[in-house]
């Protein structure tokens, strides 16, 4: 029962062997230092977003919030070259659409690979693992761009949505998750009761894999929110995503630090909201996925 | 031993409720049921494979085809055979990009793995507020690449950057970080490491928690020091996870794009005045969309794939050796 011991700290450590699991002062210093390093650039970014450019260049730099946030935000939104609000809305639409698609397609395929017997399933799953090694993004830019030109979709957001609708990692993750979250006996029992495969998917599998779906959804949303290379190629500056909008801002107003930092702060805010709401599940899901991988 | 991972463990459903009386109904469908069993699995995996063929496999093959041509967008396409590859192998600019990419990969990945191991080991101890610490070191992951690059580029600024200001206390003259390749590599590596070390630490921590504690108890009864236990028990037991982490880092590191582009601040894809931090991904985009030489860019894309395969092989044989000699 050693597992329980790490979870609930016993009042009195039973033995010397046990005591090595207590955090010593060095451990605490290391962790505190890591925490400060992790948080500082983010904190700095938000502080700068509330300051003026003169204050931003002070040495030492300001470490407490100022009162200039409103002005920075209104300048950010009215900057012609960046189309920041458009970028924000586009990113929300793109990331949401892709996330719904990836999660749905991955759960369907994951169920088939994990719980159904069919000819060629091993080879198909193996092929997915192999393609995870291929840098499809970089490899595909020339043909994908030509495809979007032929369809007349350059500059439009469907050009950024389509290539990301499926994702090998998603199928792999949901296969792993379904394998251990849904007992075989349960699937068999449903079969005996006369349920069709789709019925089993809807009423047995889906309820059981919901935590895995949540983690995949969060990871996919984050990944697409961060997409930079392909949008910067296929979209125009007047219809950007949030990342390319900041890049444009950086290029045209690179010395207007506080406005730039207001933009970057706004671009990470949606992710932070998600992280604060679901942080525990994200950590749990990441760790669970890691052990299974 | 997965009990001690505090995750929303998938709920174990109650066991099968077999009611022998209803057994017959399942077989009643006959042909329809057999069809369902045979065909539905393919129906379930088909959306993935359809879309993947269209947006993954087809572009891959098409890139290979394009790489054998002098390929202009919407213009002439002249067959060249392997000329693009021959030219690429003789192209100093390409090799410069390869050296930069591998250089940044090495100086970012090695410290990152060591730090992630240290952090995971620290997080594996019994400490108050574990979840708080875990969330804290994962925080950089949920920022965006471009935001990180903007903030760090400012921190690395020559005149007003906080890093030069800090180094000034130790008598270091202000550094123009973009100017030299090694300073630029270091700056870009810190952006990568800041964002990914915590993530890797969490993955390694998950694996550490599956190592049976009795192993450590037995070792300490035998008088093995904590340091010795770390090297003789923890590291060998972590090997599969290390392989996974290195695999992911290799792919991510060799396709590096956003950080160096933002570090430069303008989208020329040149990677500095003499290309001192131009990566292979930047080289591909530059050839394709600045110089409009799509065939050449396609050849470079296949070379990048070859580079990744070599990288994975080297890293795999290296990681395999870690802890192999217990």
TrEMBL record, chain A:
Q: Which Gene3D superfamilies match?
A: MetI-like
Q: Which residues form the ABC transmembrane type-1 domain?
A: 88-278
Q: Which GO terms describe its cellular component?
A: plasma membrane
Where in or outside the cell?
A: Cell membrane
Q: Which residues cross the membrane?
A: 29-47, 88-111, 123-145, 157-179, 200-222, 257-278
The protein's topology relative to the membrane is: Multi-pass membrane protein
Q: What is its main location?
A: membrane
Q: Name the UniProt key words of this record, in alphabetical order.
A: Cell membrane, Membrane, Transmembrane, Transmembrane helix, Transport
Q: Which GO terms describe its biological process?
A: transmembrane transport
SUPFAM superfamilies membership: MetI-like (SSF161098)
Family the entry assigns: Belongs to the binding-protein-dependent transport system permease family.
What is the name attached to this protein's record? Sugar ABC transporter permease
From TrEMBL, chain B:
| Top-level taxon of origin | Bacteria
Q: Where is the ABC transmembrane type-1 domain?
A: 98-315
Name of the protein in question: Sugar ABC transporter permease
Disordered: region residues? 1-29
**What Pfam family is a match for this entry?**
BPD_transp_1
Lineage of origin: Bacteria, Bacillati, Actinomycetota, Actinomycetes, Streptosporangiales
Q: Where is the composition biased (Basic residues)?
A: 14-25
What is a biological process (GO) this protein takes part in? transmembrane transport
Q: Name one GO cellular component term.
A: plasma membrane
Entry's family note:
Belongs to the binding-protein-dependent transport system permease family.
UniProt gene name: cebF_1
Q: What is its main location?
A: membrane
Q: How does it sit in the membrane?
A: Multi-pass membrane protein
Give the UniProt subcellular location, in the record's own words: Cell membrane
Entry keywords, A to Z: Cell membrane, Membrane, Transmembrane, Transmembrane helix, Transport
List the CDD domains hit by this protein, alphabetically: TM_PBP2 (cd06261)
Residue ranges annotated as transmembrane are: 42-65, 94-119, 131-156, 182-207, 237-258, 299-318
